[in-house]
Request: fold
Amino acid sequence: MTKPVLLVTRRLPPAVEARAERDYDARLNVDDTPTTPASILAAAAGVDAILCCTSDKLDAATIAALPASVKVISTFSVGTDHIDLPAAKARGIPVCNTPDVLTEATAELSMLLVLAAARRAGEGERIIRAKAWTGWAPTQLMGTQVSGKRLGIFGMGRIGQSLARMARGFRMEIHYRNRSRLSPELEEGAVYHDNDASFLAASQVLSLNAPGGAGTLKWLNAERIAMLPKGAVVTNAARGTLVDDDALIAALRSGHVAYAGLDVFTGEPALNPAYLTLENAVLLPHLGSATTETRDAMGHLALDGVDAVLAGRTPGNLV
Amino acid sequence: MKPRLIVSRQMPTAVGERIRAEFDCPYPDGLDMDVPTALQMLRETNADALLLTSHLKLTAEVIAEIPSHVKIAATCSVGFDHIDVAAAKARGLPVTNTPEVLNECTADLAFMLLLNAARRGHEYEAVMRQGWRRGMGMGEMLGIRAWGKTLGILGLGGIGRAMAARARGFGMKIVYCNRTRLPPELELGATWFADFREMLPHCDFLSLHAPSGPETKGIINAETLALMKKGAVFVNAARGALVDEDALIAALKSGQLAAAGLDVFASEPAFDLRFAELPNVFLTPHMGSATTETRNAMGYRALDNIAAVLAGKPAIDPLWS
Reply:
């Protein structure tokens, strides 16, 4: 029996590509060339399934032009902003994604940002790399202690809850802001706030873990930043659109926000260049899920979705 | 009359305020002094006490020159490699350190190093400093997830236990090596190994929290590194002397270790510059206790020791008895 044809739009971890080649007639992008709608359509001729990434734009026109042979689109991501879902629905093409498997890796990265920002890790690293270390001093690179502080989590979904468990190991007191209050067994003692003012006033460390979208666009603006305690630490491993960059940059310059740790940016991979001039900002290029374990799990889950649809089953990760 | 104090190193503002209130000190915020200057200041001011840090090496020769009116030398640090304690004891000079107050802060930094090493913090930061400008492939530059892995801890004392508490929040399994097994209420489910070498094959991560001494000097060497899992991650926020740095650099280059996070070096601040050329290390300049809260607490603890001894009471944290 001939294997079904699978288009893999970008380079994926070796374990995932190996499985794709074992189970499918896989068309891999070995040079990892970025795609365009035209290149996707050209490569999609005769394929049964498409395994795509957030960097591929599957807009309405592209989906409408896909060959009739395409039976499923599975994206190597949680987010589906890059796929026009109504257009896929109109074509009757199911779409799968990779929820849940990024939870721990992303929560871990949130905790890394808190620690690295508060403890001035970027500055310390740069002193060492510049070979400019002149010796230990009691007042050198004094940061803010993380353990024992109040951590405010904006968005208490799976990642927020995982971060809360990690932060408790640092004896942090957890406060959270969420659309609705969690049940006591999920809350695990965290303090729920039904308004921004009390939540922000409590947040010595603020971690953004809410989804993007219109409802949270520039949520962290100048007015809300002013409600944070002076010297607060702000981190974002969720979506760049949650932050008003100009307001955060101004607060980092004035010291009202002492330190920031950011993994996501509006307009990434371009970012507001002012961030690069700030010593008190730790900056990372959207690596929340960038571990071998997590990317393998994402790839396998995406392939599970393709397997299920082509076998006539309903996938567990259907969008 | 206030007791006379010499502070041989710049101190945090809040510590300076307390010195100003409680002591007669020519430089209450501290002044960075070398050994001859410190000795001269002690003599000239007829000082009762010396507050120092690790930059002032109190060798036997220096201790012999400390005038007899100096009743205590308190170091604002946990480590006391810079003090010849035996010579101080022979001379009858009480010397003290500042244990405990930096446990939490040092464990925070050690865990920061663990995460940054595993998640390739240095390499990614370099991408940002070059302006980013390109998306990354889904299989490109992947790090190691800490969550759910096994962490080996050498030295489950105060800092080691704080490290274990942090790791448990990441669903990590804890194995440890101590001379003696801890009681269950301190062990909290961690698995004890009497033999360091037997623990190593179990470790995805290894973090050192032992003091330096004859037993631990160079305990990380070619032989022990070879016993670790290939691709393990190594963290040292304890003492540089625990590590044979040639062997560590070789293991980082060969891939025997995937990454390392280092806050301490065999020689400081003149550390081995080969480290600065390695992509798979995250490096900080001995800043385990560098938070305002902890440095204040260390300064206060050193002053508490001085006040106790000058009041004729026993030192709180004596280095000899």
